[in-house]
Amino acid sequence: MRPRIAGIVLAGGLSRRMGGGDKALRTLGGRSILDRVIARAAPQVEILGLNANGDPARFAETGLPVVPDSVEGFPGPLAGVLAGLEWARDRAPECTHVATFACDAPFLPEDLVARLWRAVEEDDAEIASARSGGREHPVFALWPVALADRLRSAVVEEEIRKVDVWTARYRLAHAEFSAVPVDPFFNVNRPEDIAEAEAALTAQAGR
Question: Measured between alpha carbons, how far is 62 from 103 in angstroms, rounded to an integer?
Fold first, then answer.
């Protein structure tokens, strides 16, 4: 049986390529990108939180608990993973794993968590991440809460910033997804990506 899994949407970055601000709050097809991510992620987990820094009031409409980085200086996505693991350990002790989702991927798979867990089981792995079209997506992953203290040590004491540098220490499995007709991990990083995402939404509606 699948264990209880918490989820955290990673929105703690600075959105430099978008020109600053909260890229997840940009509108796509009449809804914010974040709303679309939450709608796909929430049914897959027992409890969902939002990793974000700054004033949490700007995310009040989501109804999600806002979990800031516990490491200062915007050290990157590993800080968001760490925040999610520590939050789940404290607030959802029944959950043994945390699934992470990027805040800017409006087409993320609705069976992502199930397939990540299947990859863990089939490969006897500790961590699983997604892959599509030959590309790895390390922030779409499943992490054991038991690794929280080791991750904190890696981020704070060793100053590790790259996700793949840390995951290389563990048995890592991959869940494979098709990138056709739309890569489910397409992320809206730049203003021009919004137009591409709108076109993908239109194409989906026409099928």
Answer: 12
Number of domains in the chain: 1
CATH number at residue 164: 3.90.550.10
Question: pLDDT for 58-73, tens place per residue?
Answer: 999 999 999 999 898 8
Q: Domain range holding 147?
A: 5-206
Tell me: cis bond preceding 181? Omega within 30 of 0 counts. yes
| Residues 159, 72: Cα–Cα separation, whole Å | 12
pLDDT-wise least confident of 13-17, 93-97, 183-187? 13-17
CA 141-26-28 angle, 5° bins: 85
Most confident by average pLDDT, 11-15, 133-137, 194-198: 133-137
β-strand 27-28 against 31-32: which pairing, if any? antiparallel
Structure tokens that stand for 116 in this block: 């990540």
**Contact assessment for residue 8 and residue 48, using Cβ atoms and an 8 Å cutoff:** yes
3-state secondary structure of 84: helix
